[in-house]
Amino acid sequence: MRIQERIIEGLLWLSAAITILVTAGIIWVLLSESLTFFSEVSIIDFLTDKQWTPLFADKHFGILPLVAGTMLTTAIAIAVALPIGLTIAIYLNTYAPAGFRATIKPMLEILASIPTVVYGFFALTVVTPFLQSFIPNLAGFNSLSAGMVMGIMIIPMISSLSEDAISAVPKSLREGAYGMGATKFQTAFGVLVPAASSGILVSIILAISRAVGETMLVAIAAGQQPRLTANPLVPIETITTYIVQVSLGDVPHGSLEYRTIFAAGITLFIFTFALNNISFWIRKKYQEKYD
Amino acid sequence: MTNSELNRLKDKAFQGFGIFCTLIGLVVLAIFLINILIDGLGRIDWDFLRNLPSRRAHRAGIYTAWIGTLWILVLSSLFAFPLGISAGIYLEEYGKKNRMASFLEVNISNLAGVPSIIYGLLGLEIFGRVFGLGGSLLTGALTLGLLILPIIIVTTRESIKAVPRSIRDASFALGASKWQTIWFQVLPASFGGIMTGVILALSRAVGEAAPLIVIGALAYVPFAPSSPMDEFTVLPIQIFNWISRPQAAFATNAAAAIIILLIITFTLNGIAVYLRHKWQKRVKW
Fold it and tell me: What residue of B is the nearest CA neighbor of A211?
């Protein structure tokens, strides 16, 4: 009996330990291929060259245009999702009747469950033509429409995590504000949002991390032209789109062009890893503020 | 206007804005669904589900794509469910307090935040090249299995955590061993929650295209796969492929395939919501 128990515990431990192997595998794959890449391309060029043309005859390996494209779509997405998501969180928490909140929250979650190719189709065939009707010089592929649709997609992330943070503010603070004669609006912005600010910040950081790693939506709607620009009306290319673009082509295995996707991948990984860890750190630091 | 009137006005204005924001997402969702239905519904018939891909839009079907999706779902479940549930049990019931456990915990949350395309790069190198599986169904299933592992682990832990201490204590008091307690008491009591997580993980896997494109799943596969070593395509990749073509007829095909994909995703999510609801009602501690 005791031996059997030990064996079972060992097997369970093994399953948990496999997750460490996965992380190790990701880091090993990204590092080993990019180190070979950086033995041929100088890391200074990689970080400072303003052109990314590894698939052309005149090769340039500057990651900046891809990073700029990623930042641009992310910034547009957050500009859409943050005000809307935060307003929803405050509205559902302080104004909405309980029944309304209970039906609306799962309905908003539907937005997060739709596959991202579907959002790409929506951005390309509905939102872009609609925007073109009053922005005539908007290109068929652009970061504006992709970013806006991505914003809609990540609204539920910000709204539900922020609502959780606002609900966690102790009742006494809220009642104190009401007792002083504050309106719901004053209570929300004077007391609840500042008190829940760390939780709200975590939701924003996680939303940014999600937007940075989003692939199919931008691959379909934002274009495949690496370009160092902040203009949301022209085609750009994100880090993730570039990886898809190379994967769809027939770049020979083990070539320098093939390794560029790992160099792009490690750049992406560093961004999301940093964002995720900042969010942990904030959560850890402020978790027990009101206990 | 006095100060308090102004405050009340601001309050009302914000309430209106709140309703507007809450509805905007749902209105966009509705516009989109109606649009897709108008575009694609007329294209769906039995032939669309049974036909192989074709260069002529009106003859092309999604047979290879949905068979591929089905294979991927079954294979990645076989791999990820036992692994994820075991890992969840270990973290919640056994290694709770030591440093290894807290390291595992941080590691799993990190894995949950890794973009799906990075899993594609992992699968391409490890399963495709080191294991020599190439762009096969097996590579795709293992890659997606790793991708959904954190979701399964996290939901398993949460449902096990919800089982009250007293049930475990009662079981121990009757002389049951630790594993007997977990197997006969804790797991049955948390089954509903675990199932919810498992189905949500499946619904995530159905919609993934990026990691499968990276491991080399082909956009054009002439025949439906018949073994785990075959090349394959899945619904989201087929949709992506059709969207990328200039002809309008392919956009109609894409819309029709999106309807099928959304039916699958919404059904899975619906089952998950139903299970969660039913389980919360039935079990009262």
Answer: B115
